[in-house]
Amino acid sequence: MQEKVICSKCLYHMPRPKIADLENNAVSQLFWGRVKLKYCTALFFYSKGSIYQNIIHNLKYHGKQYIGVEFGKLFGSELKSTPLSSVDLVVPVPLHQKKTQEKRF
């Protein structure tokens, strides 16, 4: 990422799930009993008020698409060493229905 989006220190300390354990990591556990998934993971855990919230808000609400491109490259490089290396598509977790409706108006 060459510190275009996030400094090396913050990238190192980014709260991440264990991508190597795709079936039983904390991200996949969030979906157990809700959605049938073979594998599930994320680039990092989002928590309100964290330093990462500002980055996500810049991407989502301020049109800073380069953040998504850089995170996509990082996530893609991490997925290369997993069973997801041949995945065709990565999709975002949908918003809660109430939030989706708010964004439509």
Brief description of this entry?
With 105 residues, the protein is mainly α. It has 5 helices and no strands. It has one domain.
Characterise the protein shown here:
Helix content is 43%, strand content 0%. The relative contact order is 0.14. It is mainly α and 105 residues long. It has helices spanning 8-12, 26-31, 51-61, 65-79, 97-104.
Core attributes:
105 residues; globular; mainly alpha; 0% strand
Q: Can you lay out the helices and strands and say which pair or pack?
A:
Blueprint: H1 8-12, H2 26-31, H3 51-61, H4 65-79, H5 97-104
Helix percent band:
40-55%
- Largest beta-sheet characterization: none
Low-pLDDT segments = none
Q: Count helical runs.
A: 5
% residues in beta strands: under 5%
Output the helix-strand order: HHHHH
The oligomeric state of the chains shown is single chain
Total number of distinct structural domains: 1
- On the 0 to 100 scale, the average pLDDT is 79
Name the overall outline: globular
